[in-house]
Amino acid sequence: MKRTRLSVCRRKARFIAMEDALIVAGRAEYPLRPYRCDRCFHYHLTSRTKGKKVPQFVLEKLRPDKVGADRPGQAPS
Ligand SMILES: [Zn+2]
Question: pTM value?
Fold first, then answer.
């Protein structure tokens, strides 16, 4: 696993508990994923979600409210 750069650690918001990071991630406009930092041993958020295990609510943000928008078979009249 790649080490977190100290400069990244220092400028990022730091969370003591993953729950706190998840709450902030859930409120964010864009998908964020909490990860454990091996510099400060707390949690930071990253927007790099590609290829990573992403919490369900983050996945829902990636696919915003498309459910019900597409209704095949119903032509607009
Ligand atoms: Zn850190």
Answer: 0.59
